[in-house]
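Inputs:
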Amino acid sequence: EVQLLESGGGLVQPGGSLRVSCAASGFTFSSYAMAWVRQAPGKGLEWVSSIFSGASSTFYTDSVKGRFTISRDNSKNTLDLQMNSLRAEDTALYYCAKYAGSTQPYYLDYWGQGSLVTVSS
Amino acid sequence: DIQMTQSPSSLSASVGDRVTITCRASQTINNYLNWYQQKPGKAPKLLIYAASSLQSGVPSRYSGGGSGTDYTLTISSLQPEDFATYYCQHSYGTPWTFGQGTKVEIK
């Protein structure tokens, strides 16, 4: 059974840093692209970042470029999102999600339950 | 960036109704269009991928269609467990944007 378990969320001041992590199990982690998707309170879904299986290809939405870094450790089956220079508008529930494959069509077939990040003074 | 616009933003329907949600992309996306369902307090769930392929385990009352820039999600006979918010998302290059969501409520 595929499981994705996020951790590391919490309250951080504007300008601060936080790292959210995702522990994956139930599939061959190294073979699949992974993504972070966030949802601000009461709002819709927003794709944040993706990383492909070899970690050589990473992608970001414009609003987080230069501030967030996605990474993976295929030996530990973990996905991370390092978030720096956090802003109030980064407040959201951050979901870890698995792609069904590493080629088109790209779609997210499994999601974690999310980790809440709150940026506030 | 490709913008995704869903309509309607919300709708009220009764059990047994046929419901159709539309998603329009700002440019052609070659059927790289996915649909997700989200219930309150829960993670999104994949329903349809590549415009019309039903994800394993999803009831057959769900179907997807469309091409080019215009796509639809249809629920042929609405069931009590279908009341939720539905999102489309394109995967035709980054950023992989979502629509704003369509909330399906009980009439």
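Chain A has no helices and eleven strands. Flag for discussion at group meeting.
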